[in-house]
Design goal:
- With about 170 residues, this protein is mainly alpha-helical.
- It contains 8 helices and 3 strands, in the order ααααβαβαβαα.
- It is globular and about 45 Å long.
């Protein structure tokens, strides 16, 4: 998600997406377990127990729809394209599940499958509102978290800039 571009530069829209997605159902549909961003269940020493992870992902469709209305969207929510690379059917399937749930919340999201090289170009140029992609896992969570979520991370395509988060990541 491009946090620096409409509609996701509005915290209410990001919150609506966050609480309006039933990520537990998505994980089950994909045949996996829910995990926290960057710390997959394969990291036995670092992964949180399932009940703690589920507590991090509350689901409240009514509140999500309310937040979109508070952000100025009526019955038709924000419209945007979700780019997904053509190199991974599981990621395309995940994106289709994501699109269906976003429509339930009120987002007008449309998937566009493009060449993987174009995904890379769009990410680096900040030429997207949303994209999905698989990510190879590093040998420990730091290798997944710092590059993606630190304000100066080389993979911080969402343009996250939070000094408190930076400090936590470096600790």
């Amino acid at each position: 998600i491009a946090n620096n571009k409409p509609p996701f530069n509005d915290v209410r829209v990001r919150q609506a997406l966050r609480i309006g997605l039933d990520v537990n159902a998505m994980a089950k549909a994909m045949g996996g377990r829910l995990n926290t961003a960057g710390v997959s269940t394969g990291y036995k020493d670092w992964a949180l127990p399932d009940d703690e992870v589920k507590a991090l992902y509350p689901f409240d469709l009514t509140k999500a729809r309310y937040l979109l209305k508070q952000a100025g969207y009526g019955d038709k929510g924000p419209s945007f394209t979700v780019f997904v690379g053509n190199n991974s059917q599981p990621v395309i399937t995940f994106t289709e599940l994501l699109e269906a749930q976003m429509r339930t919340i009120g987002f007008d999201a449309k998937i566009q499958v493009i060449d993987w090289a174009d995904i890379i170009t769009k990410r680096r140029a900040n030429d997207f509102v949303m994209f999905t992609s698989g990510k190879s896992q590093e040998i420990d969570p730091d290798g997944n978290l710092v590059p993606v979520y630190h304000s100066k991370g080389e993979l911080n395509y969402s343009k996250i800039n939070d000094a408190q988060l930076d400090q936590m990541l470096l600790k």
